[in-house]
Amino acid sequence: MAYENIRLEQEGAIATLFIDRPKALNALNTKTLQELESALKSLPADVRVLIVTGGGEKAFVAGADIAEMAALTDAQAQEFGALGHRVMAALEALPIPTIAAVNGFALGGGSELALACDFIYASEKAKLGLPEVGLGVIPGFGGTQRLTRVVGRARAKELIFTGDRIDAAKAKEIGMVLEVLPADGLLAHCRAVAEKIVKNSPLAISKAKQVIEAGADQDLRAANDIERKAFGDLFGSEDQREGMKAFLEKRPATFTGK
Ligand code: DAK
């Protein structure tokens, strides 16, 4: 499907979703969010890892679109916030791994989009931050919650209260970003990680993701119960039989995700 502000490219089982509105540094306006919602709903079934990145040279996403937000009424702002939340939730709920490749500015809604992915790799040129309080609002697409879960309360408060823009090295130091790569090696790194992932059982990966997410907000005992049940569920699957058979036959496994 053809979109105006995003672009989806697929190579084998790995798809790359570009937020591609470079004239506004890929800022998220309503149209872009609607296109994202639609693309996430209709991802081809054979995509097994999704990389999310920014089109153009300068930005991942420079935030929600300030020009559009400036004119919103209360009711429209609620609607805009709800749309943004739906997009972030849809991204987070995908049963496949999602990797944010932060290639430049990831501010406000841009950091929130990256945080809704499973993990973030950043280029040396990346700048991340949540500057909303400087605009008289707070992060509106889940940033107060997702950032806190990733870096802890004190770091999240520091970033959100100051609105500081941090570089990739600092973002790595606080655990927001996993690795920092040279700008021209960022996507290659993400694809290499994705290639490793697609060799494994899609069924097991999606279960692992589901269990990690479901357990994160529970106490350890309840979380381990979720794991125990999911572990049992995988036995008898084609992937489990194939994975173990392939090991015993000393050959690489061919997984079907069933
Ligand atoms: N929105 C709209 N346009 C943007 C934009 C943005 N966030 N960021 C950049 N642009 C546009 C610029 O206006 C400029 O457009 P023209 O003037 O060329 O037409 C073009 O992109 C290039 O930007 P610059 O000329 O400014 O480029 P520089 O390299 O000089 O500066 C910059 C790059 C990223 C430092 C600067 O553009 C900047 O500070 N941008 C704004 C960053 C920011 O504050 N982002 C956070 C936005 S707040 C909520 C829902 C959501 C949210 C909050 C509440 N509710 C529903 C309650 C989320 C809020 C945010 O994300």
TrEMBL record:
<dbReference type="InterPro" id="IPR001753">
    <property type="entry name" value="Enoyl-CoA_hydra/iso"/>
</dbReference>
<dbReference type="InterPro" id="IPR018376">
    <property type="entry name" value="Enoyl-CoA_hyd/isom_CS"/>
</dbReference>
<dbReference type="GO" id="GO:0006635">
    <property type="term" value="P:fatty acid beta-oxidation"/>
</dbReference>
<keyword id="KW-0456">Lyase</keyword>
<dbReference type="InterPro" id="IPR014748">
    <property type="entry name" value="Enoyl-CoA_hydra_C"/>
</dbReference>
<dbReference type="GO" id="GO:0016836">
    <property type="term" value="F:hydro-lyase activity"/>
</dbReference>
<dbReference type="InterPro" id="IPR029045">
    <property type="entry name" value="ClpP/crotonase-like_dom_sf"/>
</dbReference>
<protein>
    <submittedName>
        <fullName>3-hydroxybutyryl-CoA dehydratase</fullName>
        <ecNumber>4.2.1.55</ecNumber>
    </submittedName>
</protein>
<dbReference type="Pfam" id="PF00378">
    <property type="entry name" value="ECH_1"/>
</dbReference>
<comment type="similarity">
    <text>Belongs to the enoyl-CoA hydratase/isomerase family.</text>
</comment>
